[in-house]
Amino acid sequence: MVKIINPLGDVKIGRQGEVVYQRKYGEQIRRQVAPKRAIASEAQVAHRQLYKNALTWRSQLSLPNRRYLDGYCIANGIVDGYHIPLPWSRFALKLYLQGIEFVITKTTGPLIPGEYARFEFYNLGDSAYGSLYSTQWKGQTFIPQVAHKVTTLKLKLYRVGLPGTVTYSVRATDGTHPIGGDLCLGTIDGNGLTLDTGGLWYEITLGAGTDLSAMTKYAIAGRAPSGDISNQAHWRSNTTGGTYPRGNYEESSDGGVVWSSHMPGDFMFEEWGTPPPTSVIERLLHIRHPSLLKVVHKRGDLIVSGYDTLSSLDEEYLTKQVGLDVDEGDTIEATTLPGIKYPYLVR
């Protein structure tokens, strides 16, 4: 920038060639034209806005929140890439700017011959029950993803009155409903079931078990033939939003001859047994972040599970990881403490 002294009093204003003339404080100056800056990309604009939002969020933290973050960093040894301890201010930015990590792990073979493993299951979200007594039977269809021998059922049950012996078996299906006789069965003393309407999980051994083929629909059939309207075994279920993807709630009023489907709906069940030497049994999704707030796990439009208020600065706790049993096609929406949402599709 050059100051111009013009004794003739001429004043130039504006650009001429590679220089610009202008007035400043009543005097004329000349400066070189500044080169044009590169236009920021959409990603750069988005990142700049994200950083501004992080600074705004940090500035709104209360003094107790800031003190908690400072103590949290010290207590947990939070450091940067150079192993320098982070103050609360930098850790707060980390909470806002760090993305969520989604990690899928699978239980795979080779498995130990005879190892006891869980295969198909639906064990979250019960809000109702199905009654077993006299000729009122209830069932749950399922499709194994791998061939195995089923030997045990784990079911969520309770009782009203004294229903007597409760029998559960595994049957073949016609592709939709149970058909034929029992492939294997087991019993439990219904008079010893809990009276708590929330139910408890009970394990029923199915004798020697039976071999199940992969990608073939089977059914669990339950009944309490000694029961009556005042003495029933109740099998916990979800009759409005069951999310087991390969089967559904079944019921029969004539002792297992004719069955009808209740959809959407599923009974609470786990089927356990012996896998082949190599198998993929289930997928576990690990969700990781320094401060998870909410996690919603959906299968289609149905919510499989959800976690709320996982982290709280006011109550002084942060949740770093959540694990979910997932299937292909499930969708996850995870939210961090600052309120940023991250979607994820299980493939």
Note down, in words, how this protein is organized:
This protein is mainly beta and 347 residues long. It has four domains: 2-32, no CATH class; 46-92, no CATH class; 101-106 and 280-345; 117-274, Sandwich (Jelly Rolls), CATH 2.60.120. Helices cover 12% and strands 47% of the residues. It has helices at residues 42-59, 63-76, 88-97; strands at 2-4, 14-16, 19-24, 27-32, 101-108, 117-122, 128-132, 137-142, 148-160, 165-173, 178-189, 200-212, 218-223, 232-238, 249-252, 260-262, 266-267, 269-274, 280-299, 302-307, 319-326, 331-336, 341-345. The strands form four sheets. Strands 6, 7, 9, 12, 14, 17 and 18 form a seven-stranded antiparallel sheet that branches. Strands 5, 19, 20, 21, 22 and 23 form a six-stranded antiparallel sheet that branches. A six-stranded antiparallel sheet has the order 11-10-13-8-15-16, with no helix packed on it. A hairpin with a 4-residue loop joins β22 (331-336) and β23 (341-345). α1 (42-59) crosses α3 (88-97). It is elongated. It starts with a strand and ends with a strand.
